Amino acid sequence: MRVDSSQYTDPAFYEKEVAAIFKKLPVMVAVSHEIPETGDFLTRDYQGVPLLITRQADGSAKVLMNVCTHRGMTLTQAESGNKRVFTCPYHAWSFSGDGTLRGVAEAPKFGEDCRGDRDLVEFPSHEEGGLLFAVLDPDSTVDIRSYLGGMMDDVVQKGFKDWSYVGNRVIHGANWKIAYDGYLEGYHFKAAHPETIEPRTFSNIMEFDAHGPHVFIGFPQKGILKHKDTPEEDLWKFENDGYDYIRLFFPNVSIFVAPEITQVAQLIPGPTVDQNTTILHFLHPEPPADEAEAQARVEMVDWLRDVVDKEDYQLGLQVQRGLQAGHQKDVIFGRNERANQYVHKWIKYYVNGDESAPEPTL
């Protein structure tokens, strides 16, 4: 399968992707562990949309626009914290953590009582399995849970929501599809990861499954043959003990569960066609037993961040430079890169916007 190189470099095509995919489909905006307590909040800019994500008293989360409804001022510039009331720094209008307008400063002089009519913009959202998804269109009627489908069923069984949050690291890379392409195959393990991944995992051996546009990829470890006599119906029990999985929620999540630590990569395209920001979140099934174990996990986080950054994203930046030169008309995905082909078919499907067209199949 060939994909035109301009799909990685053309600003106009990128804007079509943003409009048709990242502002119309559910995207992961946070992991639940980032706002564990009532009143916790975080802010995050996504495709030019400033988000305010808050934890409610009933345990639910809300995804709001971090913009005062008076005259459009950024409501809070803090990256995170705990607040029950947000006060605009421009004219002191105040809002509750659920987005409700609480008060207009000097209301008698302002005149109109806007309460009940000028609450913060709220985006449709769904939180499950320790992950928070939203659609960046306040008028969207997308059924988020239906969209997440069978992939979310699988993630829920892992119990991430009850795991310990180790922290996150932020890295920067090339066009979002160059980064996403790398999560979709193990063809590059031997060449790009000769001392990190390849010693444990076979290169260029993969099995694929799909739930709608979401992809489930199995990678056999070099010790997998110990399970050659295991009944087929029991093989699912041995994740990380003979094989590993990558779970990808289209269009911006890659989850790698490892025995040492779990990485949830949250990919944010832009701000231009040739860039992305990726937040790597790290989870562990149990809280650390002591300070030494906590420190060991931090070291594992830094090691895995370096693997992704130096051995994947830095290579991706070189790919971006190569395609940006403009003399290679396309890239080609072989039959071993089935997931790459599949995802690019979904990208075409969404960008074309033809609801009568058949959905791609793996």
From TrEMBL:
UniProt entry keywords in alphabetical sequence: 2Fe-2S, Iron, Iron-sulfur, Metal-binding, NAD, Oxidoreductase
Cofactors (names): Fe cation
Signal peptide: none
Pfam entry (one): Ring_hydroxyl_A
Cross-referenced InterPro entries: ARHD_Rieske_2Fe_2S, Rieske_2Fe-2S, Rieske_2Fe-2S_sf, Ring_hydroxy_dOase_asu_C_dom, Rng_hydr_dOase-A
Entry keyword annotation includes NADP: no
Domain Rieske: 26-134
UniProt keyword Oxidoreductase, yes or no: yes
Molecular function terms, GO-annotated: 2 iron, 2 sulfur cluster binding; iron ion binding; oxidoreductase activity
Name listed for the protein in its UniProt record: Rieske (2Fe-2S) domain protein
Organism of origin: Luminiphilus syltensis NOR5-1B
